[in-house]
Design brief:
about 40% strand, about 5% helix, 8-stranded antiparallel β-sheet, 14 strands, two-stranded antiparallel ribbon, mainly beta, about 190 residues
Length: about 190
């Protein structure tokens, strides 16, 4: 669980100057899967009060955080947007899952949601063998019965030119009620 309004993972909102390079984003889930970047030139920057008065992490297509790859992740929920100047398929969490299209839409592999990726959205990608789906702002935008399992997710930002406000990942499928509660939380 990475929250850009609380980069250091303590109990208070951060007071970081706008455009400050951030070398580590602390996992608040208790699993210590912190996102970090040792190379100064590759560190994303903090965007103070960019989304409803709360902070975000801004990435160029060459900036990213490294994560210890997690091959058990099956659901990623995020508040995310792609910059309107980027027309590339991206994998913002690493691995092998394309999550945006060259037409600036959120996707899950071959599933094109039709929802623009250039405005902040709450996106829930579920990648459970036999039960793939993408929900954008609470609406099911596509599903598949693919039996494939995704590669380990090992990045934050990766090749995305854009911003991430919050990310929560799960190692199991979510029920519809769990997903809706999560979307409600992320909508705050």
């Amino acid at each position: 669980w990475l929250d850009a309004n609380n980069i250091n993972g303590d109990d208070t909102a951060d007071s970081i100057s706008d455009n400050t390079a951030i070398n580590q984003w602390i996992d608040q889930s208790g699993n210590t899967n912190h996102a970090g970047q040792g190379t100064a030139a590759n560190r994303p920057t903090y965007g103070a009060a960019e989304l409803n008065g709360k902070g975000v992490i801004n990435f160029t297509a060459t900036q990213s955080y490294d994560l210890s790859g997690d091959s058990n992740i099956r659901v990623i929920a995020s508040v995310i947007k792609q910059d309107s100047s980027q027309n590339a398929v991206t994998k913002p969490f690493g691995g092998n899952q394309n999550l945006t299209t060259s037409a600036q839409k959120f996707s899950l592999g071959a599933i094109d949601s039709g929802a623009l990726s250039t405005t902040y959205s709450i996106v829930v990608w579920q990648m459970v063998a036999g039960d793939y789906s993408i929900h954008v702002d609470g609406t099911n935008k596509g599903s598949s019965t693919s039996l494939l399992s995704p590669d380990a997710f090992d990045k934050m930002g990766n090749d995305l030119l854009g911003s991430i406000a919050e990310v929560i990942a799960y190692d199991r499928a979510l029920s519809a009620v769990e997903r809706q509660k999560l979307e409600g939380y992320l909508a705050h």
